[in-house]
Amino acid sequence: MSEKITNYNPFDYFDTQAEINSFLLDCYNDDDSNTFVTALGHLARHHGMTEMAKETGLSRGSLYKTFNGKTKPQWETIVKLLKALNVKLTVAV
């Protein structure tokens, strides 16, 4: 019997917005900036790339390319995704 292996998405296992926020904050605070970008990619996939494309005005292909791990996304793309995902960043000094 063959088992199908699926991609792991941590956002499939969070029950509350507080858990999502905590995870995103931990990823943002990681020394590797790719950790946060990867987390955003998982969150975007969790919401559906077609929906994210509609919300951001970016193509699905462009979104997949953003999160393929081979390119560094532009800040403008990250900002569009944050807005579409209703993620608010705050600055503290």
TrEMBL record:
One Gene Ontology MF term: DNA binding
Alphabetical list of Gene3D superfamilies matching this protein: lambda repressor-like DNA-binding domains
InterPro entries named in the record: Cro/C1-type_HTH, HI1420, Lambda_DNA-bd_dom_sf
SUPFAM superfamilies hit by this protein: lambda repressor-like DNA-binding domains (SSF47413)
Pfam families assigned to the protein according to its UniProt record, in alphabetical order: dnstrm_HI1420
PROSITE patterns: HTH_CROC1 (PS50943)
Record-annotated HTH cro/C1-type domain positions: 49-92
Top-level taxon in the UniProt lineage: Bacteria
Name of the molecule in the record: Putative addiction module antidote protein
Organism from which the protein derives: SAR86 cluster bacterium
Lineage: Bacteria, Pseudomonadati, Pseudomonadota, Gammaproteobacteria, SAR86 cluster
